[in-house]
What does this fold into?
Amino acid sequence: MQRKLTLLFVFFLITSVAHSQISTKKADAKRAIDTTATSRKAFSAAPAGTNAKTDTIATIDMYKIVTLDRDTTYVDTALTIKAEYKANYLRKDNFGLLPFNNIGHTYNILDYGVVNYDPFPQFGFRAKQFAYMEVDDINYYNVATPFTDLFYRSVLQQGQIMDAFITANTSPNLNFAVGYKGIRSIGKYINSIVSNGNFRFITSYNTTNKRYILKLHITAQDFSSQENGGIVSLENFESGEEPFTQRERLEVYLNDATSLLRGNRYFIDHTFRLSKDNPNSIVLHHRFNYENKFFNYTQATVSDRFGDAFTNRIYDKTRYNRMYNMVGAAYSNQDIGDIEFYLEDFNYNYYYNRIVLGEGGTIAIPNSLSDRINTYGARYSYQRGNWKGSLLVSNSITDQSLANIDGSVRYKFNEDNTIRLRYQKMNKLPDLNFRLYQSDYENYNWSNNFKNEKINSFEAEAVTKWVSASAQYTILNDHLYFKNNNTLVNEQGLDSLLLVKPYQYSNTINYFSVKLNKEFRFWKLALDNTLLYQQVGQDDNILNVPEFVTRNTLYFSDAFFKKALYIQTGVTLQYFTEYYGNDYNPLIGEFYVQERKKIGGYPLLDFFINAKIRQFRVFLKAEHFNSGFGTPNFYSAPNYPYRDFTVRFGVIWDFFT
It folds into this structure.
């Protein structure tokens, strides 16, 4: 795996450098690397009535990144504090997520606001899908000249993260893009190797008059992790004494367990306007999504950690596929917006290649769930001037009780000030692993008929030149969660036996949060602050989050050598208050509620030096350099330690050829 990643990275590098050298000989214009810079010469359409082609200078707004919802941004190679926050495995700001020790494994959730819901039943195994690229995570491109993005980051031990991506327009209307992100990291603890891969092929096309618009992508993703079950002795870890500072000397619960999540997806979204010339016309819309996944947990020997087993070797494999079709007709009007009426067909199969028999040979646990869900709905969207709004209403035609109302509005006063409001009311079908699960471990077999989850959520956001603020209030009814129903504890007060099962909470949970972001600047110094406050109203500890989460970065920025080199260096403090953080169960790939041990209350300090030369950015970070100060009591979950001090190096190299 590591050799394949290295060869792929070298291939992209050689190809991009070759294109860069050829293009440099053709023209001396500067590339579009910042919001005010210019780029290579690009093709443009010939004037009407002529056959000649003219060259134009490509500016940054000719390198477009378009979401499925048609929001457009531009390629940005600037070195800012936001770029520092995104230079990680997920390649996005992971505020509110607490990573586990090895990179690419999983994350504990500190900010409940990052959780998204879908009314249709999902596969489940949510702890393994933080890096899984969903439909909304795929962007589409339109670029004046070929654009290549290369990302490299070192890991904790033996391995690397590599993300290579290239996109090009073969004509002004047709774009192709291909990318691969992979990671291999040995980790510091026994049985903790991570090896993941995300491949995506993307294309978009539109006719010149935008009568027909096509977006298409294919993804192939796999996430393989050795699962050690956490450390056995917290006392040895917190002693800070040799030989336990060598983390491979610490005993772990599982020495031969591995989990694997794999998924492939084929996605098409296209629209066709009936009128050839009139933009105010009926538009036909079709969306297709076929996806198959499986989750596999294997263990060469049985562990007492999960109770009794039917066999002496564990091999659990859950399979899933779904096919989604949506057909709609919309009236598009430049003055009033788009009004669309649509029908959805959602067909899924979730299954095992065995059944579990009860007494007398009857089927105790079935081997499959399958269903066809049909819904009807209407969607209204409006975007004109400073206003952008949308409203979606859908309901089920078939017997399933499924409904969704999602409305949002945004007003942009100017470039510095924007407000946004959103309301969502959802009647959600349970995820499938809550309803059915089979395992070679006896206590991990269940078949349930849970009620739908009900979610009411209100969101407000204001982005101003003074401060950015957002608030969320969510009401949860019939909330589904996992919990250990074993009451036995070990000498450390933690669960000695994991008999985790799904449950449904019959009472109401009220969640409220406020998040503030403000940066203060003085001279060449800046202090960037993000503060999250959360409060949960509930009769039992079901939804557990820290009350306060904060991230504060003090940094210095300056340009040197006639502005050829730009440097940014500083210190980041991250902190969250103590709380009963969810524990992780590798057997089912899920987090579960626990009330044995609080985690948090410890600072995480990172020192970084970043530099930029043209399109080349370097990231050097000393992570958690304060880990040696005081008692090592930092955890990502009750018996999963957070990372020790480590130095990591990374680069992002962009080419406009």
